[in-house]
Amino acid sequence: MKKAIALSFALLMTAGVLAGCNTIDGAGQDVERGGEAVQDAAN
């Protein structure tokens, strides 16, 4: 029973980390686009 709980917890944590990576990647792209806009405005 403890193994099943531990496995379930590990799977949920893995799913959370993978979902978080996508969110952070999207935020990074937004920041990059913002920086490019600032560079374009400066030129």
From TrEMBL:
<protein>
    <submittedName>
        <fullName>Entericidin A/B family lipoprotein</fullName>
    </submittedName>
</protein>
<feature type="signal peptide">
    <location>
        <begin position="1"/>
        <end position="19"/>
    </location>
</feature>
<keyword id="KW-0472">Membrane</keyword>
<dbReference type="InterPro" id="IPR012556">
    <property type="entry name" value="Entericidin"/>
</dbReference>
<dbReference type="Pfam" id="PF08085">
    <property type="entry name" value="Entericidin"/>
</dbReference>
<keyword id="KW-0449">Lipoprotein</keyword>
<keyword id="KW-1003">Cell membrane</keyword>
<keyword id="KW-0564">Palmitate</keyword>
<keyword id="KW-0732">Signal</keyword>
<comment type="similarity">
    <text>Belongs to the EcnA/EcnB lipoprotein family.</text>
</comment>
